[in-house]
Amino acid sequence: MEPEIALATLHHAVDLGVGFLDTADVYGAGDNERLIAQLLKDRREDVTLATKFGILGDPRRRSEGGASTRGDRAYVHEAVDASLRRSASTRSTSIT
User: pTM to 2 decimals?
Assistant: First the structure.
């Protein structure tokens, strides 16, 4: 899907009352979070954003050994920081 169409679809969804968006760093290799960043420029107060992380590599090749998982403390901080950068968001829940 063209990014312009995807962004228009997201705006339309929020216009209709969708207030929760769920994404992951592996969706489009981070492109989905960058797309959502464009939405958040105008609609940040209208959306609660959740993201997932922990899969490294290409999840489509997981059965071939193309992906692994990681959940250690250092990686969690790294993944959250990267997600915040891609989504151009400044809010996160506290991670200790």
Answer: 0.74
